[in-house]
Amino acid sequence: MFPTDVLLTYLAACLLVVLAPGPDNILAIGRGLSQGRAAAALSALGAGVGILFHTLTAALGLSVILQSSATAFWAIKVVGAVYLMWLGYKALRAQNLITFTPAAHLPLHRIFISGALSNILNPKPGLFVLAFLPQFVDAQRGSVPVQMLVYGAIFAAMTTVLFALIGSFANGLATWLKAHPRVTSGLNIGAGLTFIASGLTVLTLKSRSV
pTM here? Predict the structure, then answer.
């Protein structure tokens, strides 16, 4: 069902997409710096679950509805943009996306939920999955939905593993950052502005763009 050359090309493309800076890996890095490897891994797992959600909706045809219905797409776009900008506002106001104060740490289940919602409520990954996965699907190789689900699972697994690794390595900077609070403050401001910019970008998305 999956020729080696096609699979290798797909893996290379996924690697480039996963490593590109975005809200999800910034969340994983922030959690890794603040609360360690387990928090980074759960944030990454949330992002992976989000990819699976978008894959499932694409395979079931729901993403096509979002593309064809201006009202549905607008509603999802606004919700996603507001959520991303809210994360940015929180990072700017509370300065606690990256924090070493135990009282400010989030419960692990909330870190997972935040990681998942950051991805699920952002229509950009959904449109990307809808445009990206079919490029590697061939109806002559079997069920199209099954192929999309398998490709999506691979994408989600790579997202989870790589984000978790990035967040874990970031945790190694924690000792140095504790001694440089101004740098930590700057990182929180940068992360907050990135989330707000991502939310504004979502608002500019058109239903037929990636």
Answer: 0.67
